[in-house]
Specification:
Blueprint: E1 7-9, H1 15-21, E2 28-29, E3 40-43, H2 51-56, E4 61-64, H3 67-78, H4 81-84, E5 86-91, H5 96-109, E6 114-117, H6 129-141, E7 146-150, H7 153-157, E8 168-171, H8 179-182, H9 185-196, E9 203-206, H10 224-239, H11 244-251, E10 262-266, E11 269-273, H12 278-290, E12 298-302, H13 312-322, E13 326-329, H14 339-347, E14 356-358, H15 362-371, E15 378-382, E16 389-392, E17 395-398, H16 401-411
Parallel strand pairs: 1-4, 2-3, 3-4, 5-7, 5-8, 6-7, 8-9, 11-15, 12-13, 12-15, 13-14
Antiparallel strand pairs: 10-11, 16-17
């Protein structure tokens, strides 16, 4: 029988039988883009248009499954890798990347072998369950002991973490974000807390209600918000069984992740940060303000993403001109929206327009902002952080805030 050309509907009851047929396959994938010869391609409901592409790439089998069935199939195929690893999941509006980064690097310093999955190294903050389970299986095969992952609200709602056994579940905080998807802040909060309040017995860290403990000083992790990130990381590591003294020593040595309150220059102060929510932007600007002398002025270059939560745009505009002295509004992944329209939504939250300069071209906006600085001043380039592309009208155009800032400063 030519299995490669068969498209089938399989029920959960025969997954193990299917697994016995395909032990020679390379892996399981939901993305036809990532499919390789010999893989099993799982077609989710509504994804039929990708079947031809998957077959053309040489997949051995196509299965029509929903997300719950896909998770169970992948778990059977990879032999439940999450059960054999120490898995840490971190959710929250802000801080996920920094907290997972700290936990991951601390584990490796403390003798474990950790793998990190999240915003810095995945197309999605939390990939589909077969991709994550496949990464876990690969890590386990290579001698891995821990798997540290970011867990987005979309992933929780879409059941992309089904089938994953977590040893520690961490919630950093809940503030305004993704209301375009979840519909309301209450619903968004419920989704976040549903991860923390899983029926499965598991260690929990809730930074949203505050964690009271001392944390080590770390010269690369500036800002009060990073104290909260350090607390979440430390509590998670304690729950994994590590010694507090050794945890503090490890956390004090770890450099922060790229694009997270990353200080490119101290005189004048130039910081690149991923802040793209009202709360995150306010925290970053207030932290930057504390690094300036009394006479220093604070600037911010900021935009809002297109085809995303419209409600936060005027809030971002207001914060930009209340927590900073001057704002330059620009584009930040406008996607299929008009950048000028997005900026007009931001301007709706501004009471004093004299404190805002509008420059849709992000490179020019950054150059303009830096050109205004005196040695005692500072600027925060907010929104993109580590990202290396701008998404404009369906095109991914290479652009890095870090590279742009570095090039401008080097020319001065």
């Amino acid at each position: 029988m030519c299995w490669r050309c068969v498209v089938a509907d399989y029920s959960v009851s025969i997954y193990l039988m299917v697994f016995s047929y395909y032990t020679q396959c390379m892996g399981v994938t939901i993305s036809s883009q990532d499919a390789q010869e010999g893989d099993i391609f799982i077609c989710l409901p509504g994804g039929e248009r990708y079947i031809a592409d998957a077959l053309e790439k040489g997949v051995r089998q196509v299965l029509r499954l929903n997300r719950l069935e896909a998770a169970q199939f992948a778990n059977d195929y990879y032999q439940n890798p999450s059960v054999q690893l120490n898995v840490v999941g971190v959710t929250g509006t802000n801080g996920k990347t920094t907290v997972t980064w700290l936990i991951h690097h601390a584990i490796n310093q403390l003798g474990g072998k950790s793998r990190l999955q999240g915003t810095l190294n995945s197309r999605l903050t939390t990939p589909e369950s077969p991709e994550t389970l496949g990464a876990m299986a690969s890590h386990l095969k290579a001698g891995g002991t821990h798997f540290v992952m970011e867990v987005s609200s979309h992933a929780i709602a879409q059941k992309r973490i089904e089938g994953i056994s977590f040893d520690v579940r961490c919630l950093t905080n809940i503030t305004h974000d993704h209301l375009d998807y979840h519909g309301s802040f209450d619903r968004y909060s419920q989704v976040k807390y549903s991860f923390l309040n899983s029926a499965m017995p598991v260690n929990r860290v809730d930074g949203n209600v505050g964690i009271h403990m001392s944390v080590p000083s770390n010269p690369t992790l500036l800002g009060a918000f990073n104290i909260e990130n350090l607390k979440c990381a430390k509590q998670s590591l304690l729950l994994l069984g590590y010694d507090e003294f050794e945890i503090d020593a490890a956390l004090s040595r770890i450099a922060g992740p790229p694009g997270r309150f990353q200080c490119i220059s101290k005189t004048p102060l130039v910081i690149v940060d991923y802040a793209h929510t009202p709360h995150a932007l306010d925290c970053v600007l207030n932290s930057a303000r504390l690094l300036l002398p009394d006479e220093g002025r604070l600037y911010v270059v900021v935009g809002c993403g297109g085809n995303r939560d419209i409600e936060k745009r005027p809030k971002m505009g207001k914060i930009s001109t209340t927590s900073a002295d001057y704002a330059i509004f620009t584009q930040d992944n406008p996607r299929f929206e008009n950048a000028d329209a997005i900026i007009s939504h931001m301007m709706a939250g501004v009471s004093d327009h004299s404190r805002v300069t509008v420059q849709p071209d992000r490179q020019i906006a950054i150059q303009y902002g830096i050109d205004q600085l005196r040695p005692c001043d500072g600027i925060v380039i907010a929104g993109k952080g580590h990202e290396s592309e701008q998404c404009i009208q369906g095109e991914s155009i290479p652009f890095s805030d870090i590279e742009c800032v570095t090039e401008i400063l080097n020319k001065k």
